[in-house]
């Protein structure tokens, strides 16, 4: 079921938490709202669910307008056909797993046989069929999270809203449940909106990511496009690009690195050059260290300040002429390790230097006609 958000605005008193938001989510699509704490992700989710009344705008789920500020429409949460799973699983400890999942169906006064069948189906989906009779207080964190998910799925919602549902779990379990969640979403063909501040989680779960900063969606893209072509230096930085350097254009592919007397060559396409405040963005893994001077562009003598062994890789802090400090990540395979104090040659492939504006204005999300159904995309 499609979700269309138009001109959404939410104010808490004088504070604007969501500003002029437009976003279309396709049928069976998984969109992840990604951004740092306080950027307005949960507020957006609460507006879709009907738990928050926006100050302006319109939200349509399927063919139903669930909120329209001008027309005075505001359907309550239970009339929106959405299921929600939150960070705090809110599983009732005094009930069994079965009773937790059956609770809402009992409220709907469904026949006992139907309740049993639907609960069994939901528990099978989350891999908890053997735990139906166990007291919920005896479950692990991961199992409780699955109960919370089963409780939403049992209602057969058209839309599933997930707000950091894995953040209370340890890293290994999070990785596993992430894959399971994606599998369930694709299998049931659910339209999902997922909130997280963790980009790896977003990459793993999204058909498209909507990146939010200060109440505004600044970029909407498929994960690989977001990763490879961030719209701005601040998006790149949020996605883990550690080296963001002030530059001014000095002609052709050449840029001077502000305040260093050094220059850098970029052959990557420059976007938004007219916006000013340009930054050269370089991923740590795109910087190479060598004992011998390599041939090519962007080669500098440098000193290793910190060398930190990380198993499969080594992370370095490296100084170029005392004027520029760069973060470098070298794969352990095939490369030698340098200790702090080592004099090295540092090189950067000009194609790996992206010159971007510091910030960029929101990009319009494509109309749903452009959205490829997730299953088709996965298969292609
Ligand atoms: N009820 C409220 N009253 C006033 N301000 C609020 C209220 N709820 C949220 N805010 C503010 O609105 C902004 C957006 O909050 P929101 O919870 O949507 O952020 P978030 O991106 O989900 O953050 P997190 O990842 O920490 O949950 C924050 O600055 C927050 O302090």
From TrEMBL:
List, alphabetically, the InterPro entries matched.
AAA+_ATPase, ABC_transporter-like_ATP-bd, ABC_transporter-like_CS, ABC_transpr_MalK/UgpC-like, Mo/tungstate-bd_C_term_dom, P-loop_NTPase, Transp-assoc_OB_typ2
> Which GO terms of the molecular function aspect are on file?
ABC-type transporter activity; ATP binding; ATP hydrolysis activity
Record has Membrane as a keyword: yes
| Cited SUPFAM superfamilies | MOP-like, P-loop containing nucleoside triphosphate hydrolases
- What GO terms fall under cellular component here? ATP-binding cassette (ABC) transporter complex, substrate-binding subunit-containing
- Coiled-coil regions, chain positions: none
Q: Which UniProt keywords apply?
A: ATP-binding, Cell membrane, Membrane, Nucleotide-binding, Translocase, Transport
Q: Which domain of life is it from?
A: Bacteria
Q: Which residues form the ABC transporter domain?
A: 3-239
Put simply, this protein is called Iron(III) transport system ATP-binding protein
Q: Which organism is it from?
A: Micromonospora eburnea
């Amino acid at each position: 079921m499609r979700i269309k958000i138009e001109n959404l605005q939410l104010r808490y008193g004088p504070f604007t938490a969501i500003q002029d938001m437009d976003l279309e989510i396709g049928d069976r699509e998984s969109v992840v709202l990604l951004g740092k704490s306080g950027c307005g992700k949960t507020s957006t989710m609460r507006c879709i669910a009907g738990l928050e009344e926006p100050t302006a705008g319109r939200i349509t789920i399927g063919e139903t307008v669930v909120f329209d500020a001008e027309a005075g429409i505001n359907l309550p949460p239970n009339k929106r056909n959405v299921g929600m799973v939150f960070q705090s699983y809110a599983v009732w400890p005094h009930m069994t797993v079965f009773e937790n999942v059956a609770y809402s169906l009992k409220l709907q006064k469904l026949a006992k046989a139907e309740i049993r069948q639907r609960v069994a189906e939901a528990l099978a989906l989350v891999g908890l069929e053997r735990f139906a009779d166990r007291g919920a207080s005896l479950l692990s964190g991961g199992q409780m999270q699955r109960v919370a998910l089963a409780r939403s799925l049992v209602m057969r919602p058209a839309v599933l809203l997930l707000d950091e549902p894995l953040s209370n779990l340890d890293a290994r379990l999070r990785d596993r449940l992430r894959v399971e969640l994606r599998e369930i979403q694709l299998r049931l063909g659910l339209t999902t909106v997922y909130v997280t501040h963790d980009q790896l989680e977003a990459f793993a779960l999204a058909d498209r990511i909507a990146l939010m900063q200060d109440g505004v969606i600044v970029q909407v893209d498929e994960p690989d496009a977001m990763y490879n072509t961030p719209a701005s230096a601040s998006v790149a930085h949020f996605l883990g690009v550690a080296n963001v350097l002030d530059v001014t254009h000095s002609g052709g592919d050449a840029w001077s690195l502000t305040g260093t007397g050094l220059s850098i060559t970029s052959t990557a396409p420059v976007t938004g050059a007219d916006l000013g405040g340009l930054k050269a963005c370089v991923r740590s893994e795109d910087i190479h260290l060598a004992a011998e001077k390599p041939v090519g562009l962007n080669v500098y003598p440098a000193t290793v300040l910190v060398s930190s062994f990380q198993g499969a890789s080594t992370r370095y802090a490296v100084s170029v002429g005392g004027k520029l400090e760069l973060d470098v990540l070298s794969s352990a395979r095939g490369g030698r390790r340098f200790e702090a104090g080592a004099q090295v040659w540092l090189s950067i492939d000009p194609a790996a230097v992206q010159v971007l504006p510091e910030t960029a204005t929101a990009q319009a999300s494509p109309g749903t006609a452009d959205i490829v159904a997730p299953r088709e995309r996965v298969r292609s």
